[in-house]
């Protein structure tokens, strides 16, 4: 699956150009983002796409030196299940 990366969003589109998966992480302060939405189209559910989005998001934030405050339920659980990825979680986030 190919992902498009923007400053505050990572997403994938299908052949028709429709967004079928995305994670949003708008800035909330200097170098801090809020992972506030993870969404996958019903046609892709159960295939690990949300996890791939989160891995890509983690990589982007780490490379940019940004910190995350996960607020959507999927992101909160994803970071809780992967303590080795908490190096990008801001103080007060899902640590």
Structural account:
With 95 residues, the protein is α+β, with helices and mostly antiparallel strands. 26% of the residues lie in helices and 29% in strands. The chain has two helices and seven strands. The strands form two sheets. Strands 1-2-3-6 form a four-stranded antiparallel β-sheet. Strands 4-5-7 form a three-stranded mixed β-sheet. The longest helix is centred in the middle third of the chain and has 16 residues, at 49-64. It starts with a strand and ends in a 14-residue tail after the last helix. The relative contact order is 0.17.
Give a short overview.
The chain has about 100 residues and is an alpha+beta fold. It has two helices and seven strands, in the order E-E-E-E-E-E-H-E-H.
Largest sheet: 4 strands, antiparallel
Number of helices: 2
Provide the low-confidence segments as ranges: none
Mean pLDDT: 95
Query: What's the β-strand tally?
Result: 7
Give the tags.
three-stranded mixed β-sheet; globular; single chain; 95 residues; 2 helices; alpha+beta; four-stranded antiparallel β-sheet; 7 strands
Provide the fold topology.
Elements: E1 4-5, E2 9-13, E3 19-24, E4 27-29, E5 32-35, E6 37-40, H1 49-64, E7 67-70, H2 73-81
Parallel strand pairs: 5-7
Antiparallel strand pairs: 1-2, 2-3, 3-6, 4-5
